[in-house]
Amino acid sequence: MRRTLIGFILGLLIVPVIGAVVAFSGHFPFEATGTPPRWESRLAGMALDPAVERKAKGLVNPIAATEAELVKGMKVYRDGCAGCHAEPGQTSPWGMNNYPPAPQLADHGEDAPVPMTFVVVKHGIRYTGM
After folding, report:
1. In CA terms, which of 46, 75, 122, 124 is 20 to 30 Å from 85?
2. Is this structure's pTM higher than 0.85?
């Protein structure tokens, strides 16, 4: 029983210790021009999605989807978002050079529900430049 407990504790400690050794020895990737490793993207997504869902819970869109409101929304997008997230029919070199790259929303949009999109636009996402 004692050996099992010691093995379990060592198993819990070894991954963080290896991670610390890699990070503090200068072997952790820092370049903003590279593609994020798959593990980093998955971990970020696993943390981001539930956090945004929790923050958006109970929110409803108070603005009707009228022609006038959609035009206002497009002006807001063009003035504050298109620099990184692109204009229709274009790709934003500025946004694609961010780390992680900014989603190019103009042509394919975002599939998140409106309350979640509102939370992201209002508060931004840490470590993304937004």
Report:
1. 46
2. no
